[in-house]
């Protein structure tokens, strides 16, 4: 019996669940100490995620970028690399997608892939720089990634203010040409007949009209499955896992570890780039703005990857959790005035417990084994 | 020209001081074998604590003290996770980076009625050169904060302790081969706890000097990336106090370059200028830094009895 | 077995020591009695629990039950500093030295002599250290960095460290494992001097010859259990071996003379640099024929590691050629080298030849994952992998037999090694390079590995055996080369080779001197 419990506690699911649970406990504690009602806060969080179809859809839509950046980080983790540069790859991708989206105006069938692929390639380029510098010069990936994040940020600011793209009297650029939008039924829902139809259907109205309804999430899930397939079913994936877990053994088995580092960073960059491109094509305002600090899509990806235990499929759920919490945080501040940063703390605490909780079943196991063994005597 | 040089020197020193404090913290932690990626979070909480205590007590020094303590407390969490729980130090450090800034803004809103900005502190940390005396001279722009001196003292002191005293010897040994230290009857855990907490205190002080010496109040962007730059300085400086100091100065200098070029006649976009420090760092890395020479046991949890 | 009473005639007495690791009893009610001033051996196979017992005495582990008496008085050794205070010193098998530090820094670490403010002053310590050095006739340069001194000297530094702390009881864990015959002589002299100085010495070993040479009494441990305590005089090696292993063992390897065939592998004048860009392999040449075992003897750090890496293509060859089956393979890629039917059993299996946190099945295909049938059209075929794994588990009797999906980390060292050997041999190599293939294995497993190597030779394969264990080289090689300072300094046929002539060359002696011996 005891062993079965321990076995269960050892499963990644149980570990993550415990971490999330403890995260909420600590967050409630902080709310209580600072004079807010914990139970009411939790109710608000729950409500603002599930109360209306619009909320649910928004949580799902907003989860796309964090799932993808999370996937990007998780993929790099699997091959032993720490892609703290997802943030920069995300930003540079939004920049390049916006540039292509403004300059060109083809039929959507060409325009959409063009915008998205250009963004992905930009992310991949940034990733490949990190990979190249690591494999060629041995420069730590964290170091170059941090620098490139800032370079991406200032590139974003430069392009935002660049005459060709800057929209007068604003902080940002023009929107991309509508041919690049990946919104579903975008023209119809604002047309007369569309409005008329939706008026009579509350749920559809809520889902389609009141949100930037798009199908990016579905693509995002497909990508997660593809990445899972790449990691666990293909030769390349095997090479990457071996390189990540034991580079020396990988070299001795004839695996070109250096080339795999570049490959990993390119794929990782592509995924973060996709996150950026999807944001540009799929959600308003379809442009970029000057940034005074990071928007944290990439950094949030780190948390998502960690909470998911670097599992591509797990990223989907961790991303949804993350997006739900961020979304709910805003209502928390709006409704009871509790600073929305409680959500950042909550996520931080969850990650903290993810870090330490894996040892709990191990310690428990050791303790029980020792007890049993001494009893036998 | 002279005034430009003086501006350059003061900006270099001003900008590098908080970085230096935090980077030295990073060096100390890495030297004992614990990777501290959570510097950013510790700086954030230090910045908030410094500004808040500075505002309510009116005493900037007391603020600075509390900035150090708050950073140390956050570091304690990291220490518990990475030493006792043998957690992945990167994950734990990232958690600190989420908790630190979140908690800082949360508390700012709590103490200042929902504002993410704190109210300005009544008195900043003193300058060592009185600006009033120099007001009408060529040296009017030559401003040096006390934090600059503090940073320099910390660098010297850390170097001295690390390389000249028995404590330094033990810390370095712990980062290289913890089991060896253990077999000599010196507690690895104690040394690591001590170093990680000191590391947090220094990062907290670094954050405190930002809000108490440079901008006089806490804002959500007061600490935006300095912790990561400090982390970069640790690696860049090859895990040595003076190396890290040099890296921070280089970084400060390129910031000064941005300011001076921005004020000059050449018409370059401020965004492009702002990239200079980062591009410069990458170039310097390619040219001068080869394979890294981190302490051998850095990042590896120590389990008693393992080799 | 008489029950010895606790008395102050004994430096160390341990009673009923039990220690549990990962659900098995590493030590089960073990007793130990060591008289003051004697040299006592603890004999047992790898994994029998010798080191664990001594680590408990030295306070690195706590025992789960049992008592310890020093000089007849009960003590509670919570940590090494308590042990040090009781006059216990320990030289670990894997030296506890910090390579970046100087010898002096290593000696004083944790026990520093200082001026004001904790500033280290080595002058004060130097006098004491020099006294010990001259007393025991050790030749050590205190200023040198540890990474720049030989393994033998490093061991002396470890002994010095213990004596500097005033050790009266000195534990040596497998002290001769990495030494040349000459260095072993030196060590034996140091031990004699220690004895004259009335110090108590405990030697952990699984080598029978050494016990006869060094010790008066001996405690034998098998699979965590106390077997016997005997006076060494009056015991034969055969006798001791039987007690250690628990069955009759053959001390000699059975093998027929080799019938070498054509040349298959050749190294011509290669030069290789080490990590610090020093020339470490110098103009080295050697050749191997089908159907022979070539033993490469040498002390650690004479270029073996760099030579191996140069062969398998993970290190650049500066000049010279490596030829396998008539094609040059130097400076190509590891994949190319492996494709030329070369397989390697690496010394450090955890670091170099398996992925500990992957399953047994995944590890089974590590050197063949890209070949059919395991990989078709860039996809892995898990069915083939599993079938193959199950077959090898059965053929090589890897235990537990249902371990296919377990992480390889959970297997015992012997079974991990079996798995790796099975995998490499299943590649059907023309040349098998085996580096320390029996490191850390027990007698049964060692016999098994040796048998397999000889069987492979009899199937007309070439085998390059690189080992630090001279006995192993002498036992199973057909031809023996000695590597010193990056070059082959002498080659012998098995009949001509003996401990003396090889040992002399290993330590840097001249060839003609070796032949005189």
Q: Percent helix among the residues of chain A?
A: over 70%
Please count the beta strands of chain C (DSSP E, at least 2 residues each): 22
Radius of gyration of chain A, rounded? Answer: 23 Å
Overall pLDDT metric of chain C: 89
* Range of strand content of chain A: under 5%
CATH architecture of the domain at 63-319 in chain A: Orthogonal Bundle
Q: With helices defined by DSSP (H or I, 4 residues minimum), what is the helix count of chain A? A: 18
Given helix and strand content, the structural type of chain C is alpha/beta
Count of domains of chain C: 2
Share of residues in strands of chain C: 25-35%
Q: What's the helix count of chain C? A: 18
Oligomer: heterotrimer
**In total, how many beta strands of chain A?**
0
The separation of the N and C termini of chain C measures 44 Å
- Percent range of helical residues of chain C: 25-40%
Question: Main sheet of chain A, how many strands, which sense, barrel?
Answer: none
- Write the CATH homologous superfamily of the largest domain in chain C: P-loop containing nucleotide triphosphate hydrolases
Give the overall shape of chain C.
globular
Category from helices, strands and their pairing of chain A: mainly alpha
Mean pLDDT of chain A: 89
CATH fold category name of the largest domain in chain C: Rossmann fold
Describe this structure in words.
The complex is a heterotrimer of chains A (377), B (307) and C (517). With 377 residues, chain A is an all-alpha fold. Chain A is built from 18 helices and no strands. By secondary structure, chain B is an all-alpha fold. Chain B is globular. Chain C is α/β, with parallel strands linked by helices and 517 residues long. Chain C has two domains: 10-245, P-loop containing nucleotide triphosphate hydrolases (Rossmann fold, 3-Layer(aba) Sandwich), CATH 3.40.50.300; 263-341 and 429-506, Rossmann fold (3-Layer(aba) Sandwich), CATH 3.40.50.300. Chain C has helices at residues 50-57, 80-85, 103-108, 122-135, 151-164, 181-196, 208-214, 237-245, 304-312, 334-339, 349-352, 360-364, 382-395, 413-426, 443-458, 470-476, 499-506, 511-516; strands spanning 10-21, 24-35, 39-43, 65-70, 73-75, 88-91, 169-173, 200-205, 217-222, 225-231, 263-273, 279-289, 293-297, 317-324, 327-328, 342-345, 375-376, 379-380, 431-435, 462-467, 479-484, 487-493. In chain C, strands 6-7-8-3-9-10 form a six-stranded mixed sheet, with helices on both faces. In chain C, strand 11 (263-273) and strand 12 (279-289) form a beta hairpin. The relative contact order of chain C is 0.10. The model of chain C has no long low-confidence stretch (mean pLDDT 89). Classes of the chains: A mainly alpha (377), B mainly alpha (307), C alpha/beta (517).
């Amino acid at each position: 019996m005891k062993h079965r419990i321990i076995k269960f506690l050892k499963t990644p699911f149980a570990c993550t669940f415990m971490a999330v649970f403890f995260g909420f406990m600590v967050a409630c504690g902080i709310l209580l100490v600072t004079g807010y009602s914990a139970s009411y806060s939790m109710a608000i969080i729950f409500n603002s995620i599930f109360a209306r179809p619009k909320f649910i859809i928004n949580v799902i839509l907003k989860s796309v970028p964090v799932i993808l950046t999370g996937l990007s980080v998780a993929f790099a983790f699997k091959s032993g690399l720490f892609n703290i540069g997802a943030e920069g790859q995300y930003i540079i991708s939004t920049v390049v997608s916006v540039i292509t989206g403004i300059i060109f105006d083809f039929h959507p069938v060409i325009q959409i892939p063009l915008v998205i692929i250009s963004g992905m390639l930009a992310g991949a380029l940034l990733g490949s720089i990190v990979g190249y510098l690591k494999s060629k010069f041995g420069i730590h990936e964290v170091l170059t990634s941090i620098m490139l994040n800032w370079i991406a940020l200032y590139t974003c600011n430069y392009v935002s203010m660049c005459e060709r793209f800057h929209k007068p009297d604003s902080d940002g650029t023009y929107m991309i040409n509508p041919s690049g939008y990946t919104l579903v039924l975008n023209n119809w829902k604002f047309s007369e007949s569309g409005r008329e139809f939706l008026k009579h259907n509350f749920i559809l109205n809520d889902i389609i009209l009141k949100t930037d309804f798009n199908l990016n999430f579905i693509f995002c899930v497909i990508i997660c499955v593809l990445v899972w397939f790449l990691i666990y079913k293909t030769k390349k994936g095997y090479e990457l896992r071996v390189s990540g877990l034991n580079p020396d053994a990988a070299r001795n088995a004839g695996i070109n570890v250096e080339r795999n580092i570049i490959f990993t960073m390119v794929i990782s960059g592509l995924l973060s780039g996709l996150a950026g491109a999807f944001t540009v094509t799929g959600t308003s305002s379809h442009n970029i703005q000057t940034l005074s600090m990071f928007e944290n899509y990439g950094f949030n990806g780190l948390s998502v990857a960690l909470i998911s235990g670097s599992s591509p499929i797990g990223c989907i759920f961790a991303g949804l959790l993350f997006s739900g919490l961020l979304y709910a945080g805003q209502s928390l501040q709006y409704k009871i005035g509790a600073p929305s940063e409680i959500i950042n703390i909550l996520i931080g605490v969850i990650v903290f417990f993810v870090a330490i909780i894996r040892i709990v079943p191990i310690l428990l196991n050791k303790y029980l084994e020792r007890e049993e063994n001494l009893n036998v005597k | 020209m002279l005034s430009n040089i003086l501006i350059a020197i003061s900006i270099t020193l001003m900008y590098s001081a908080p970085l230096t404090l935090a980077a030295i913290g990073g060096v100390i932690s890495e030297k004992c074998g614990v990777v501290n990626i959570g510097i950013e979070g510790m700086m954030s909480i230090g910045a908030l604590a410094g500004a808040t205590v500075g505002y309510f007590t009116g005493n900037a020094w007391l603020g600075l003290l509390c900035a150090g303590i708050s950073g140390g407390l956050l570091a304690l969490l990291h220490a518990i996770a990475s030493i006792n729980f043998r957690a992945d130090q990167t994950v734990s450090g990232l958690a600190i980076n989420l908790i630190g800034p979140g908690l800082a803004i949360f508390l700012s809103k709590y103490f200042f009625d929902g504002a993410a900005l704190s109210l300005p502190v009544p008195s900043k940390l003193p300058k060592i050169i009185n600006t009033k005396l120099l007001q009408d001279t060529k040296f009017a722009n030559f401003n040096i904060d006390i934090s600059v001196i503090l940073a320099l003292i910390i660098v010297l002191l850390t170097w001295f302790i690390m390389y000249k005293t028995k404590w330094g010897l033990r810390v370095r040994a712990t980062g290289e081969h913890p089991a060896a230290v253990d077999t000599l009857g010196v507690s690895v855990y104690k040394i690591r706890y001590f170093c990680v907490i000191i590391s947090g205190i220094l990062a907290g002080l670094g954050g405190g000097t930002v809000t108490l010496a440079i901008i006089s109040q806490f804002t959500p962007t007061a600490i935006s990336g300095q912790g990561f730059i400090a982390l970069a300085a640790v690696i860049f400086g090859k895990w040595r106090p003076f190396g890290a100091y040099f890296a921070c100065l280089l970084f400060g200098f390129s910031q000064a370059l941005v300011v001076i070029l921005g004020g000059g006649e050449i018409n370059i976009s401020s965004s492009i200028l702002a990239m200079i420090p980062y591009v410069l760092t990458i170039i310097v890395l390619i040219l001068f830094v080869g394979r890294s020479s981190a302490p051998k046991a850095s990042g590896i949890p120590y389990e008693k009895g393992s080799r | 077995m008489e029950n010895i009473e606790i008395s102050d005639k004994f430096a160390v007495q341990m009673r009923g020591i039990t220690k549990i690791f990962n659900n098995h009893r590493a030590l089960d009610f073990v007793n130990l009695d060591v008289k003051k001033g004697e040299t006592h051996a603890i004999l047992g196979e790898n994994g029998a629990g010798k080191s664990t017992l001594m680590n408990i005495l030295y306070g690195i582990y706590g025992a789960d039950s049992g008592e310890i008496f020093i000089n007849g008085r009960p003590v509670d050794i919570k940590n090494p500093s308590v042990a040090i205070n009781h006059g216990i010193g320990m030289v670990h098998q894997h030296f506890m030295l910090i390579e970046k530090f100087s010898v002096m820094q290593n000696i004083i670490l944790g026990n520093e002599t200082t001026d004001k403010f904790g500033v280290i002053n080595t002058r004060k310590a130097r006098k004491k250290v020099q006294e010990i050095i001259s007393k025991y006739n050790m030749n050590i340069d205190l200023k040198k960095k540890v990474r720049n001194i030989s393994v033998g000297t490093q061991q002396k530094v470890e002994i010095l460290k213990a004596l500097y702390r005033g050790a009266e009881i000195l534990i040596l864990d497998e002290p001769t494992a990495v030494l040349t015959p000459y260095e072993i002589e030196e060590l034996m002299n140091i031990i004699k001097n220690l004895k004259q100085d009335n110090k108590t010495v405990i030697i952990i070993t699984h080598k029978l010859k050494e016990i006869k040479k060094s010790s008066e009494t001996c405690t034998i441990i098998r699979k965590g259990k106390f077997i016997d305590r005997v006076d060494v005089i009056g015991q034969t090696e055969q006798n001791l071996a039987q007690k250690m292993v628990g069955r009759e063992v053959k001390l000699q390897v059975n093998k027929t003379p080799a019938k070498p065939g054509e040349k298959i592998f050749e190294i011509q004048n290669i030069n290789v640099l080490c990590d610090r860009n020093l020339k470490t392999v110098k103009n080295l040449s050697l050749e191997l024929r089908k159907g022979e075992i070539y033993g490469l003897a040498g002390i650690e750090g004479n270029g073996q590691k760099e030579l191996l890496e140069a062969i398998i293509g993970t290190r650049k060859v500066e000049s010279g050629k490596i030829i396998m089956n008539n094609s040059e393979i130097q400076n190509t890629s590891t994949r190319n080298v492996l494709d030329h039917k070369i397989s390697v059993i690496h010394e450090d299996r955890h670091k170099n030849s398996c992925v500990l946190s992957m399953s047994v099945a995944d590890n089974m295909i590590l050197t063949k994952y890209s070949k059919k049938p395991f990989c078709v059209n860039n996809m892995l075929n898990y069915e083939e992998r599993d079938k193959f794994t199950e077959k090898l588990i059965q053929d090589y009797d890897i235990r537990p037999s249902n371990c296919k999906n377990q992480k390889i980390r959970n297997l015992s060292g012997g079974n991990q090694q079996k798995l790796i050997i099975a995998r490499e041999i299943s590649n059907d190599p023309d040349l098998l390079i085996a580096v320390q293939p029996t490191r850390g294995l027990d007698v049964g497993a060692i016999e098994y590995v040796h048998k397999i190597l000889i069987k492979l030779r009899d199937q007309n394969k070439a085998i390059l055996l690189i080992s630090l264990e001279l006995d192993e080289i002498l036992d199973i090689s057909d031809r023996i080369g000695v590597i010193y300072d990056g070059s082959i300094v002498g080659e012998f046929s098995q009949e001509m080779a003996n401990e003396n002539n090889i040992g002399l060359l290993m330590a840097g002696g001249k060839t003609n001197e070796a032949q005189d011996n």
